[in-house]
Amino acid sequence: GLASIWLYVSLSLAPAVVVLEKQRPVEALRRSRQLVSGSWWRVLGVLVLAALLAAVAAAIISIPFGVDGGGLTALGDRTSPVLLSELAVTAAGSFVASTLTRPFTAAAVALLYVDRRMRTEDLARSLAAAAEDRDGRPRLDQRP
Fold it and tell me: CA 115 from chain center: how many Å?
């Protein structure tokens, strides 16, 4: 129930921490909790919004796969037996939809991770300092 939702939100940034900070799983879970603390509701809102957008996109993508014999199999009558071909087409639609929407959800979590680091650790200043060369000029302005 509520405890699982709290846990999901608190630990949601762990995959981004593993990839971007190269942390081990236990440290990544601890780090995710640290990044989310103080902004739990905001993180929940972004995760819910990303999930809703992905669900709507997946539904739209899978609509053409649900059309079978002039009617939608999901909305058709339940008296006719379900054919193996209908199940295969529906499964293909689900596969295509998830293949196209999962990267969006992962990107949303990665952006949320960067946002939390920017807000809590002044990541922007660290990135700007790392981009400067020895003369103090930003590398981004130099032309090859």
Answer: 14
